[in-house]
Write the structure tokens for this entry.
Amino acid sequence: MYKGKRFLALIPARGGSKGIPGKNLVEVQGKSLIQYSIEAAKKSNYIDQVVVSTDSEEIQSVAMQLGAKVPFLRPPSLATDTSKTIDAVVYTVDKLKEVDEYFDYVALLQPTQPLRQPFHIDEAIEALVGKSLEAIVSVSPVQEHPLLMRTMNEDGSLQPFMKTPSTVRRQDFTKVYRVNGAIYIAKIDESLRDRSLNDIENSYVMSEEYDADIDVPFDLEVFKLKLVHLQKKISGGIKCIH
């Protein structure tokens, strides 16, 4: 709880995954991807309850052993490759209300961002409540600027993705960010079911060091390197990896 507001941490974890089979249960340094998110949520100072939304009995069992609540399985219709995450969020919130579990905000924490730390969650919540926002989303700086991107025609020729004067220097580019998927927090009200996670305008900035969006096997290797890098820096005074 933070300033009288109750926060639900919701971790979405489907059993199916095309890029990495069984992705949410893949282990790195003895912990599954879902464990990193469950532990971060449980160590947050403001999260009141941690719930995992899954269609998998195996993930349900693992999550419960790690201290998360999984009071029901997600319907198959909400666990397809084309299902919208927000629909699973609304379904979970509604089911919890049926057993008199009420929250003011839901914090969506995707297991595919395992480097997100408890202090990230807390800082995002503090920003959300402190500014009286309806929602907030985590972002990371982007090094590969869109002005340097190209699209390719069928004949292999390239065209600028965005038009820019040839005289603009790279150091003069406007700083850009990408929604990294680590934290989405939204107020629980009637507008929640109509909300698009992609349209949240208010941001919480995370360092690139903590950005490890895992979708394909190579991303796992990047995550391992970043994890070791951050662990080595603990003694140098950075906020601790848990």
Remarks:
- The first strand starts at residue 7 and ends at 12.
